[in-house]
User: Fold RimM N-terminal domain-containing protein from Zea mays.
Amino acid sequence: MNKLACLLPSWISKASAHQRRGRAGRVQPGTRWLRARAAGKQQVREFELVRGRAHTRKKSWIVSFDGVNNLDEARKIVGSAVLVKARDRPEIEDDEFYSLDLVGMRVIVKF
Assistant:
């Protein structure tokens, strides 16, 4: 199996980031992968996440990666998708779902 096959993109809504402020708005350090398109090709690079937290007013995260030590290095990874293993995704409330977890579910519309 391809090493990347078990990685999932982790997207959250603005509301979810706001709800997680303080409680679970911080993510655990560890290995992450950044997926970006460069020169017309998709590239995936491995990074060590030092720390991260949800930005309370924007649909974004504030993160620190090992080896990204200045603004020029940070600009190179702006817009990259952060890939995480499913078990490393931030906790969510009981009434929240990751959109990826809903793929393939049957939908019933009631009137």
